[in-house]
């Protein structure tokens, strides 16, 4: 990879209100910590909610990460066509990855944090954080 090449990673879930928002926030943090400006990030949902789940925002705030101002938005197969990695969070990659797409899809499939207790959300959050850090380690 040359200095001008970029790696493109998308985090996708159904509502884009919990898991994928956490993954995006952790990926943004890792990109900054590692000076990895060559990594482009995207997040979206196949059926987006109106807002980020409050319990998810509260859990992220415990780590000093504010995601309260983020808006869930839709992601389409066309949006993902040029991405190197599409990380799905419990939705089928076949529903979001375009036919003939040459990237890699991975389904992390953590539990949906919506309606879960604070302890359960922390476990989901911490699992996603570990996976994001491991992904950045792999790409380093």
Explain this structure to me?
The chain has helices spanning 19-33, 54-61, 77-80, 93-96, 118-139, and strands spanning 7-13, 39-45, 85-88, 104-107. It is α/β, with parallel strands linked by helices and 140 residues long. A four-stranded parallel β-sheet has the order 2-1-3-4, with helices on one face. Strand 1, helix 1 and strand 2 (39-45) form a beta-alpha-beta unit. The radius of gyration is 14 Å and the shape is globular. The model has no long low-confidence stretch (mean pLDDT 91).
The number of helices is: 5
Residue ranges: pLDDT <50 for 5 or more in a row? none
Radius of gyration (CA) equals 14 Å
Number of strands: 4
Main sheet?
A: 4 strands, parallel
Helix vs. strand class: alpha/beta
User: What is the class in the CATH system?
Assistant: Alpha Beta
Helix content: 25-40%
- Mean of the pLDDT scores? 91
SSE order and pairing:
Elements lengths: L6 E7 L5 H15 L5 E7 L8 H8 L15 H4 L4 E4 L4 H4 L7 E4 L10 H22 L1
Parallel strand pairs: 1-2, 1-3, 3-4
Helix pairs in contact: 1-5, 2-5
Features:
about 140 residues, alpha/beta, Rossmann fold, 4-stranded parallel sheet, 5 helices, 4 strands
Summarize the structure.
The protein has 140 residues and is of the alpha/beta class. It is built from 5 helices and 4 strands; from the N terminus they run E-H-E-H-H-E-H-E-H. It has helices spanning 19-33, 54-61, 77-80, 93-96, 118-139, and strands at 7-13, 39-45, 85-88, 104-107.
